[in-house]
Amino acid sequence: MKRSNHPNWHAPRISRRGLLLGATLAPLAIGAARAEGLLATDWAHRPTSPDGLGVLLAQPEGRIVRGPFLEESPLHAIDGLITPTRLHFIRNHTPTPLIDPDTWKLTVDGEVDRPLELSYEDVLRLSSKSMNILLECAGNSRSRYSPLAEGTAWTDGAASVAEWTGVSLGDLLRSAGIRPNAVHVVAQGGDAGKVERGLPVDVALGPDTLLAYAMNGDTLPADHGFPLRLVVPGWIGVASVKWLE
Question: Could you tell me the pTM of the whole model?
Answer without folding.
Answer: 0.75
